[in-house]
Amino acid sequence: MLRILSTQPPVPSWQHMYMLEAMTFKMKIAVDDPNITADEICAQVWTNIYHRGNPNGHWHAVPLPVLKSSSELNNGKKELVFSDSVILTSDGEEYRFTFRARVKQRTWMWANDYKVDGLVRISPPTGEKWTQGPEFNQICENIYLGNFMASSIADELGFHSILNVAENLDLVSSKFSHEILYRKIPMMDGARNKIPDHLIQEAVSWLEEQDALNKKTIVNCRAGIGRAGSTVVAYVFYKNPTWSFEQCYKFVSEKRFIYPHNGLEETLYRLYPRIHLEP
């Protein structure tokens, strides 16, 4: 009924990628039954790769939407291509992936035998588009989220305060043309690195002080999407005690591409319990 003809990357294979690069997956499937439509086919990558939808590094499915179909073959048979990309959000050890597909709720068809997977090693970020120039976005009235390059010209951009959460990057605030309040709370890069409770609390408290003083504040890491993004989600979560984590994450991510760090959701619910309003 279904036959997996090919996958990209092949399985097995070994890939080398960089954090914050987009990794594209494709699967070509032959459909022998002319009555089966693309909408009835579920195609997935099964992987433990960290990306914005998998901040905890669990084995999980990445859905692959249908990309295109070739012309129909003999007897109404057809070939379909399913594809999607994920942004890699953590470097480190080798991660694994394979492919599977099925029609509706029938048994999964795997691209390869059990534990025969593709491997990918992810190196620290290099030359990613988020660091090629100053980038920042307004999240709340006084709170902005951006990259290190934006903070490096914070005076030109009209900021009063900077929160730098990049462990390996620092700013010389004395070089600014006017006085800017500078605070560094170092956090480790990569989604697999959990942000300690005390660093989240310290960052949220400092942002609250700046916000209360009506200070235009930028939060940065290297690219302004991982550590800084998690920090701003934490602040929005703190300021809105009736909102769920999903609401806070959506609120920030609709304004700038971000990804959460490992365990962020669990940490925030523990540190800042929700207020449940009566219906």
UniProtKB/TrEMBL annotation:
Q: Which GO terms describe its molecular function?
A: protein tyrosine phosphatase activity
Q: List, alphabetically, the CDD domains matched.
A: DSP (cd14498)
One short Pfam name that applies is DSPc
> Where does the record place the Tyrosine-protein phosphatase domain?
135-277
UniProt KW Hydrolase keyword: yes
Check the record and name the PROSITE patterns matching this protein. TYR_PHOSPHATASE_2 (PS50056), TYR_PHOSPHATASE_DUAL (PS50054)
Question: Start and end of every Tyrosine specific protein phosphatases domain?
Answer: 197-256
Q: What EC number(s) does this enzyme carry? A: 3.1.3.48
Family of this protein: Belongs to the protein-tyrosine phosphatase family. Non-receptor class dual specificity subfamily.
The record's PANTHER family line, in alphabetical order, gives:
DUAL SPECIFICITY PROTEIN PHOSPHATASE, DUAL SPECIFICITY PROTEIN PHOSPHATASE MPK3
Name recorded for this polypeptide: protein-tyrosine-phosphatase
Q: Which organism is it from?
A: Sinanodonta woodiana (Chinese pond mussel)
